[in-house]
Amino acid sequence: MSWILQGIALYLAVMASQSKAPWPPQSEILADGGDASRAEAQDDGRSGGQTAKRAKRRKPRKLRKLSQDYFRRAALYYLERYNGSQGTLRQVLHRRVMRAEREGQEFERDEVNGWIEAVIQELVQQGFLDDARFALTRARSFFDRGQSVSAIRMKLRAKGVGSAEIDAALERLVEEQGQGGEEALALQAARAYVRKRGMGWRRPDPEQRAERAQKDLAALARRGFGYAVAKQVLEEGLEDGERLGDLPDDWA
User: Fold this and answer.
1) Rounded to two decimals, what is the model's pTM?
2) CB contact at 8 A, 152 and 198
3) What is the dihedral of CA 135, 35, 123, 9, to 10 degrees?
4) How many whole angstroms separate alpha carbon 236 and alpha carbon 127?
């Protein structure tokens, strides 16, 4: 990620030297920017009450007139701070369009959409945007947090990543983990979640294990793990012949 930030910084310096137009304020660039919008809410040492009062008094700056150059600068500011996909960046830039409409700017929507797509393709060609790299980075992160394969797919789709990039990321993840396929990957992710949460056989008290068995099973199901995987990882650390009595033999 560091080389991407260095590249963006160099690109920004070049663009600034070539243009006399002032750069949009950072608060304007980040406003309505998904993950970026949360950065404005971070407390820099003030109490929560003081921060809320200041935020209430402060009026957001109006956007500068939309242009392809504006979208390029907004995109680079965003990518300096966040690892994004084409889909997430497209959402961020289109929020600028909706905000400009609310502020009364007049423009041709088709022309603006063309600017956004041109900027995205430009950044793809320059290596600042790479959905394959983004998908693999996020897949690794979700897997380490105990997300199921189906949950990883769903989260990456929500980020605007295409099916081909998702499949390639999961294949690479399987290779990295030295597993035999997505089923084995699912078992490993479920084990990580059980271990992290202290569920199933990880509970030292047998009575508590039995009382919490159904809830543990439901928790794994909500994360996208199938019943067979969930039941196996909840019971696999028990003594031979022992099982969690409250776990059903099937979903019925």
Assistant:
1) 0.59
2) no
3) -120
4) 45
